[in-house]
Each structure stands twice: as C-alpha cells, then as structure tokens.
Amino acid sequence: MDGIMSQTTQAKATTGVSWTSRFKTWEAFLLLITAAVFVLNTLASPYFLDPWNLSDATFNFTEKAVVALPLALLIICREIDLSVASIIALCSVVMGLLAEAGFSIPLLVLGSLIAGTLCGLLNGVLVTRFDIPSIVVTIGTMSLFRGITYIILGDTALKSYPSGFEYFGQGYVYWVFSFEFVSFLVLAAVFYFLLHRTNFGRRTYAIGNNPTAAFYSGINVARHRLILFCLVGLFCGLASVMLTSRLGSTRPTIALGWELSIITMVVLGGVNILGGSGTISGVVIAVFLMGMVTFGLGLLNVPGIVMSIIIGLMLIAVIAMPILLRRFKQRRS
Amino acid sequence: MANLLKNRETQLAAVIVLMLVLIAFVNPDFIAPSNLLSVYTESSILIILALAQMLVVLTRCIDLSVAANVALTGMVVAMINSQYPELTLPLVIAAGVVLGTLLGMINGLMVWKLGIPAIVVTLGTMSIYRGIVFLISNGEWVNSHEMSLAFINTPRTEIFGVQGFAIISLLIIAAIYIFTEKRPLGREMYAAGNSPTAAFYTGIDVGRTQFWAFTISGMLSGLCGYLWISRYAVAYVDVALGFELQVVAACVIGGVSIMGGIGTVLGCVLGALFLGVINNALPVIGISPFWQMAISGSVIVIAVIANSRAERKVGRIILRKATLARG
Amino acid sequence: MALKKLLATAIVTATMTTAGIANAADTRVGLVVKALGIGFFEAAAEGAQEAAKELGDVEVIYTGPTTTTAEGQIEVINSLIAQKVDAIAVSANDQDALVPILKKAQQRGIKVMSWDSGVAPDGRQVHLNPSSNALIGEMNIKLASDAVKATGSDSGEIAILSATPTATNQNIWIEEMKKVLPNYAGLTLVDTVYGDDLADKSYREAVALMKNHPNLKAIVAPTTVGILAAAQAVQDEGKIGQVYVTGLGLPSELAGHVDSGAIKSFAIWNPIDLGYSATMISYNLVKGNASDSEVGMGRMGTAKLDADGSAAMAEPFIYDASNVHKFAEIF
C-alpha cells in the first residue's frame, strides 16, 4: 500500500461535478451506515425522533464540525493541526477579557476571530518558514496556547458576558433550527464551493497530491499552507464564540480533548490523512454520523467513554473495510 | 555526521545542567544528589515510554495509544492482584507485559497488513483501549488497600539507595541501546524510516519493522502499566490521560525526527529528563503550576525549531522535497 | 435514489412505531455526578437506589461524565433532557457553566436540584449541602489542629490539597477554613494546591508540598481522591509521624492508611445518606411536596431551606483508628 492513487480516485477528488458519480464510493458507504444508525436509534429509544431532541443533539457537534470543515482542507493539503482545541480556549479567554472591559458583542466576536487567526498564523509561520512538520509544531502550540489560558485565568472564570451574547450558542433561527446548526449548514455549503469549485480548492488538492509538482507548476505552496492554517484558526475563533456563548462562561478547560474528535470527524469523512483526497460532503455526512451515534447512545445512558470505544471502532472499521473489500475482490479475480 | 549528532545531545545536556544551576539559586536543596535521584526516579516511566515511542517514530509512524495501553494493562494487573493476591508478583507483571505486547501487535498488524496510517490506527485504538478499561472495571477504582503489599512495594525497594523504578529504567535504556546499535532489526528500523524505498530494495520489509516497533512499544507500555499503578497505588480509567503527548514531546525534544530515521537513545533519554526536571522543578521554585503547560509548550516549539535547523545541515535538502512528495 | 427511498421508509416506519409508546408511570430522576468511578459517588448512587426502593415508583438514572469536566456533564444533562426525565439532581463540576443547560431543563418542565457541589441559584431550585459549610470548614481545621498535636508540637504549618480549582464546594469550604483559622493560633496555612481529583496529580502535588515546606505538619485534603493520594505520598516519602494527612475521605479507602499511621483522623458524612436525601428531595419537588422553606428527606428528616434555597443535611462524622474498620465495611 503506497501513496499512488488510482486514476478514478484522482478524478473524483478534484472535479466532483456530477452528483451520482461521486456518490458511488465513500460518501454512499457513509450514507448507508448513517441510515442504518438512524434506524437503529429509532428502534432503540422512543425519544430519538423528537424534533427538539434532535435539535438539542446538534449542539454537541456543530462547534466541532465548524472546525472540521477548514481542517479537512488542511489535511487534504498534507498538514495537520492538533492545536485547534487550545485555540478555541485561547479565543474564549480573549473574549472574556474583552467582555470584562465592557466591549460590545460585535467587538467580542471580532476579537475572537482575530485571536484565532493570529494563532493559526503562528502555526503556519512555524511550519512554512522553519520547515517543521506540522504535527510536532501543533503538539507544541497545543500546550502553549492552553498554557497561556491557564496563566491568564488560573483557577478563575470569566463570566461577565453581556446579555444577548448567548444567542450564538443558545439561540434559534427558526423553530428547532438553532443558530449554530444553521451556521454550520451555511458554512458547509461555502466550503463545498471553496474546495470543489474554485481554483483555491484545486490548488489544495494539487499540493496535497504532489507538493513538488505543485511548486514547480507555479503554485506558491508556502503561502497556500499559511492561508489554510490561518483559516483553521479563524474558524476556531468562530467555534469559540458559539461554545462560550453556549456555556455562558470561560474556563481554561474549555474544549479540552476536542482535537481528536474533530480529526476523527475529518478522517471518518473520507479525507486521507496522508493528504490528497477527500470531500466536504464526506465530512458533513461523517459529522452527522458521529453526532447521531453519540446522541443515540446518550439516550441509552451509555457512558461517554464507552461511546468513544464505538467511535474508535467505527473509525478503524470504516477505514479498513474498503481496503479489505479491495483485497477480497483482487483475490477473487 | 557523528559529530553533529554528538553536538545535539551535548547541547541538550548543557541546557539541562544550566537549568539545574538556575534552579539551585532559588532552591539549593534541589540539586542535592538524593533529590536529583528522586527526580530521575520520577521520570523513569517517561523515559521508558519515550524510548518505546522512539522506535515507532524511527520507522515513520506514531503511537498515540501508549497512554491508553498503560492504563489498560495497569488496570488488568491491579484487578488480578486484588482478586487473586496469592498469585506471585512476577506472574502478574508478566501477564501485564504480555497484554501490552498484544495491544501493540494489534496496532502493528493494522499498520503492516492493512496499510492504514499509524496516526489513524492509534487514534482509534487509543479510544478503544481506554474504553475497555472502563468496561472491565465498571468505572470502579482499584485502591491501594486492595493491592497486595508486594505489588506496591517491590519497585520501591532500594538497591544501593536506588529505587527499583530507576533500576528498571536503566536496564531498559541499556537494552534499547544495544538493540538499536547492534541488532539487525534495530538498524533496519533506522533504514526503514530514513528511506523506505532504499530499504525495500535492500530487502528490508518496511511494514514488518513497523510491526515490530509497535510490538516492542506495546511491551514496554505493558511494563509501564504495572509501574505506573504501583507508583501511585491506584488504578482507574483516567490513568496517564494525555500522557502520550508528553511522550512524543520528550522524543522530539531529544532530537528524534518525526519524519523518521533520525534519533538516538541518549537524545531520547535527555529529552525525557528535560521534561522531568521541568515538571519537578516548577512547583519547587515557586512558579505557579499554571505556568507549567505554557512552558512545556514553548520548550517543544523551540526544540522543534532547533531540530529542524540541525536536520537541514545533514544535507537532505534535495531529498526532503522528494520525500515530502512521496509521503 | 434507492438510498433516499430506504431513508424515507425508515423514517415513516419509525414514526409509526414510536407514536404508540406511552410514558412510564415512574418518576424518573437523573442523578448526575462529577465523574463516574469515584467511590464517594458510587456510594451516593447506592443511597439513591435505597430511596427509590423505599418510594416504590421512582427510577434512578445514575450517570456522569468520565472526566471531571463541565462539558461532559452538559452532554449528559442534554441526553437526560432528551429522555424527558422528571428531575435532575446534579453535583456540579462548575457552578456557572451548567446554568444555561439547567435553565433549559427547567424550561422543559424538569425539576432541578443540586447536591454536594452546587450550581448558581438560577440554575436550580434547591441545593443540598451535605452539611453546613461553616461546620465543614471548622471541622477540617479542627482535624488539622489535632494532626499537628499528634506530631508532638502545639503549633505548625499546614497546607491544603484540594480538587479542581473550579469545584464549588471545595472553594466554599476553603473559604470557611480560612475564616476559622485565626481561632487556632498555632496553625499557619502555607499553601493551597490542586490535584484535580486525579490520583497521580494529587500525589505529585502532595510530594511537592512536603518538599517545599520541610516543616509541614499536616496536609488537609477535603477531597476523597486527594486525601488518599496524600496519604500514599506521606508513606512513600517516609514521613509517617512527621506529617499527618487529614480531611474528608471514605473509611473503606482510608482504613489501610489509618493503620499505617499516615492518617490520625478524618471526617465525612455518609454519602449513602446524601444520595438518599437528594433522591427524596427530587421526588418531593416533582410531586409538589416542597415549600419555600422546607422539603422532606425521608428517613433523614426535613431539610430547612434558606433564602437561596440551600439546605444542610447532617453533621460530619469523625473517623479514626477506633471506628474506621467498622465503617469500612459500609462505605
């Protein structure tokens, strides 16, 4: 198994023009599993199909999903960012401090977005200027960013958020559709367009597939990577706005451990961790799949840690299955 | 090249000595030999796990499941001991090591035979193993009064004033050193990580070396499972939570390259000691524990920048882009 | 598409089958703890089951996150709301972060109370303190004073080893301890550290305390995880007899350390009683049997509520070598 991709996968990865042709592979597979989980959940618990409950369930994953979208692009580009959860925490602290200083809500949101982008910028600069693998840079910045939140907050909390701020995390746009959920859907559409319909997206795939060739065909690889890191940071800032608004307060332990769930969402969505292929639709389906699995299990009062066993098994099974099937087919023929 | 590597380790050693000197100004008791020994003892588990991780990283993989492995083998060992206290200790420890090896083999097999990237495999097994800890224990803790005295005290016994923990880690350092310097499989790991294509053409099965790296990593994690539980005299689901990142950080600080093929036992040990000194020193010199995380994080970033500078000089400039392209 | 048809059929069948399910007649109480697996809360769950059996028509759903985080509790509470429980009784990891979700629960008609570690007043109707906070603070300092005396001197340094920095109950008790401290002229509080209710972190903090303060005579740990880790640390450092550990702990976990001499005496209220009372109060809230000033707690008596809706259950009980083994059998 090496990194050479078949022609069909390559074509699918970059164009994604026709709906049906793309849905024949990973996304269809995921959709099938999602449907199965949906049915299982309805049979297992009478509370599953309640529209308000389903809406409540979305709160658990929309913030992570908002970060998963740009992270998917980053991973397609052969990088990774383990510091996303820590960036969320740091942005939350920035907002808390601004709130204590009396700034208005739009400025709070702006503050968070800027803080996130700056953190992403730091990651990007370290990776591109010093040519360091992103996995180790982000392991370091993961501790650094969260460490800064601990230094600033220690064991206190920031709670002086103005009223009206809770709309982001707790408000509803229409009936059961929360602001968070609607934002996620809108952003998913935006990223779909960005990745599959623009040159920016093409370049992402090109770099992920073969950075040397991309470099020599005139793509500014370093700048592209830098932009992607900043993008991830920006959306961490947005997720932080939603999460802080939902919790109503800021503590240094906010979003602890989220980076692994977010990466699982991306990888489950069919994005190759080694870069070069993956689609936004896959990520979106994976987000719903994971959300439904956790919600359904939660209704049965399964402890969180047992849920993570199932997610872990799902991750490995879903990745291994196509490989095993291909082996099986090869042996047949 | 040997000169350069030597420079890297001596630089790191010099930094550690400098830190100790600075700390001594604030708290002279810290550099008393007995205290230094206890700092070493406290870092023993990190050293063993860092060495295990080094083998995996050498072959261009990463093992994020080490901490969960430690937790699971530790819980199993603790439960066996609390329910069957009459079983002799060596047997119980052996059971833990065997279990750890199996857990490592599972990782290794998936990477080798199924070709799933190591980070994905270990991300999955990390959650699975830790979840299994909950399943077998039902969330209950095994407390010190349920463990036999031999279980808790054996690694604490002192030989010439050195605790068992430290002795075990010294033995393992020696073993891994011999393995990487003298044994063919050890050398193959370097080759496989440095240039998998070249290794393939010299007859080395890259997947197989990765498998063995994971297996040895699992074995050492199994041992550390027992050591950890015995040190803190309690076994529960969150044992060693998040520790895998400390382990990777220790490797990186010690000069082990995440791209594979570069790294020495000495560097790895020094990297672990570096973190150990920081973790133990900060509370003692009055730096609020709230600073610890930020300091470790910045240290990792600085070490990694220094690392990359060193690697650049090794003359891989032309090859690096090609290897990046190949992935 | 075939898949779309499959999905549509699934939804239709599911809606038809769920339509016929009626609600159970039982009163369902969700007992949310700081984290699963902590001995103290396992015992509280036993008490809750005892109350459920006594009342007859109560179902207790015992749940909690696996790590002591507020977000974990929020997810758990979310799923309880989805299951339309009748009441939620929570021991909070964070008194503020849980308020929004608990307000939502109250909006949906669920009765909310907090116990052990409280939530800010607008998130709950009633808060049950295991004992009056002032009394707990006073008792911890008194135990510390006894510990210092046990080392053979009249005065000495003490330090506090707490749980997470955000735990409501911990912070209140530490406040109360500091208020009472001036009455004990011989005691000096030199440090307060946090073990996060994690055994290894608590252990390391305890070791650091002894290293940083060589004249330390007593470690006060008002958390069952911390007191256990500190006792092990004292034993490992060879300081039995020089440093005594005291605070709040479970007899079953600490019996061995009382025997070894690391602990002279400690206190706790019966967590079984606490779980029992919490369930009783929840039941009474659901049935409307509570007034603004008091609510029944079954065999534990009646809880008197103050202006904030807080009540105390009982006095803490002191354990030492004379009675610890007897109680170790129970909890």
Helix and strand topology:
The complex is a heterotrimer of chains A (about 325), B (about 325) and C (about 325).
Chain A: H1 7-14, H2 19-22, H3 26-44, H4 51-76, H5 84-100, H6 105-129, H7 134-153, H8 167-170, E1 172-174, E2 177-178, H9 179-197, H10 199-209, H11 211-216, H12 221-247, H13 258-268, H14 280-299, H15 304-332
Antiparallel strand pairs in A: 1-2
Chain B: H1 2-26, H2 33-58, H3 66-83, H4 89-112, H5 118-137, H6 149-153, E1 158-159, E2 162-163, H7 164-182, H8 184-194, H9 196-201, H10 206-232, H11 243-253, H12 265-284, H13 292-313, H14 317-326
Antiparallel strand pairs in B: 1-2
Chain C: H1 2-19, E1 27-32, H2 39-55, E2 58-63, H3 70-82, E3 87-90, H4 99-107, E4 111-115, E5 126-129, H5 133-150, E6 156-162, H6 168-180, E7 187-194, H7 199-212, E8 216-221, H8 224-236, E9 244-247, H9 251-260, E10 265-268, H10 271-287, E11 294-296, E12 302-304, E13 310-312, E14 317-320, H11 324-328
Parallel strand pairs in C: 1-2, 1-3, 3-4, 4-5, 5-13, 6-7, 6-8, 8-9
Antiparallel strand pairs in C: 10-14, 11-12
Helix pairs in contact in C: 2-10, 5-6, 7-8, 8-9
What does this entry look like structurally?
Chain A contains 15 helices and two strands. With 333 residues, chain A is mainly α. With 327 residues, chain B is mainly alpha-helical. Chain B has one domain (2-326): ABC transporter involved in vitamin B12 uptake, BtuC (Orthogonal Bundle), CATH 1.10.3470. Chain B has a two-stranded antiparallel sheet with strand order 1-2. In chain B, helix 2 (33-58) crosses helix 12 and helix 3 (66-83) runs parallel beside helix 5 (118-137). The two termini of chain B are 25 Å apart. In chain B, 54% of the residues are buried. The mean pLDDT of chain B is 87. Chain C is an alpha/beta fold and 331 residues long. Chain C has two domains: 23-130 and 271-314, Response regulator (Rossmann fold, 3-Layer(aba) Sandwich), CATH 3.40.50.2300; 133-268, Response regulator (Rossmann fold, 3-Layer(aba) Sandwich), CATH 3.40.50.2300. Helix content of chain C is 44%, strand content 20%. In chain C, strands 2-1-3-4-5-13 form a six-stranded parallel β-sheet, with helices on both faces. In chain C, helix 8 packs parallel to helix 9 (251-260). Chain C is elongated. Chain C starts with a helix and ends with a helix. The interface between B and C is medium-sized, with 28 and 27 residues.
